[in-house]
Amino acid sequence: MGCCSSKSADSKASRLARWRATGIVALRDSKLKAFPDEVFDMDRSVRTLDFTHNRIADVPIEINKFVNMQRLILAENVIERLPINMGKIQALKIMILDRNRITTLPDEFGQLVRLERLSISENLLVQLPETIGSLRNLTLLNVSNNKLKNFPESIGSCFSLEEIQANENAIEDIPSSICNLVHLKSLCLDQNKLKQIPDNLLTDCKALQNISLHNNPISMDQFQLMEGFQEFETRRKKKFDKQIDANVMISSKGLDEGVDL
User: Fold this and answer.
1) What residues have CB less than 8 Å from 211, skipping those under 6 apart?
2) How far is residue 157's CA from residue 111's CA, in Å, rounded to a whole number?
3) Cα separation values, 43 from 79, 82, 84, 88, 116, Å
4) Which of 14, 77, 187, 254 stands 20 to 30 A from 176 (CA)?
5) Which of 129, 94, 86, 130 is nearest to 111 (CA)?
6) Which runs of E-coded beta strand occur in the chain?
7) What class is the 103-256 domain?
8) Confidence (pTM)
């Protein structure tokens, strides 16, 4: 007993030492149902927390101790909600919450002002908080495979957004504020309920190179008649010509992006 206990203690001590040295706390595929207690002893030392593919149902409120955490990866768990004090982790840059059971994001989410990449696909989201507009450094938003019916008007204040993935939702309309996203390069909205998109999207979003609208009620004729379509087509073709010149393998579907509705 004493020998086994000693080995267990050594193992735990060495793991903590490794975590402190690297700042990376990674326990993937570990059948966890909760955050291990020893993780909270790390507090300010945590830079990356990765608990992918476990059975975690609740994110503890003590997570706000990780004030220096930059990456939070909790994909493939059974999480239903997030604590409101997550907004205090203001060093956070990357958050990956794919394949959980999350229905809403707290309003305090808007306090994560350094967040650059948010992926929360394959959840049960019915709406995004208006406070998401405070995420001025966000470059990627992936909310595919949820139950969203629209975007909040404040999405237009996420001025750094370059890519929005919102495939397989129930989105019926896009707010005109999305035209404020002058850095937006890719907008993916396959399998939604869109009948139209903002009239000035193609003229105002001058960086836009890809729009994917497969399986929506909007027609190809509507899209081609929009002001700015020819300029958009030029950007789209230029993008793929560059990829071909760089010997990048592209599928025929890839060449079709943004045109075939």
Assistant:
1) 186, 187, 188, 189, 197, 223, 232, 257, 258
2) 14
3) 22, 19, 18, 13, 22
4) 254
5) 86
6) 24-26, 48-50, 71-73, 94-96, 117-119, 140-142, 163-165, 186-188, 210-212
7) alpha beta
8) 0.88
Cα dihedral 127/132/137/139 (nearest 10): 10
How many CA atoms, within 13 angstroms, populate the side-chain half-sphere of residue 186? 14
State the number of CA atoms in the 13 A half-sphere of 256 facing the CB.
Answer: 8
Tokens at residue 165, please? Answer: 């993935």
Kindly report, residue by residue over 77-134, the tens digit of the pLDDT. Answer: 999 999 999 999 999 999 999 999 999 999 999 999 999 999 999 999 999 999 999 9
CA distance 190 to 165: 9
Say how many C-beta atoms besides its own lie within 10 A of residue 158's C-beta: 25
Domain boundaries, the chain: 103-256
Residue 59 dihedral angles phi and psi, to the nearest 5°: -95, 115
Higher per-residue pLDDT: 79 or 3 = 79
Cα(7)–Cα(132) distance, rounded to whole angstroms? 47
Closest CA to 25 of 65, 61, 73, 59: 73
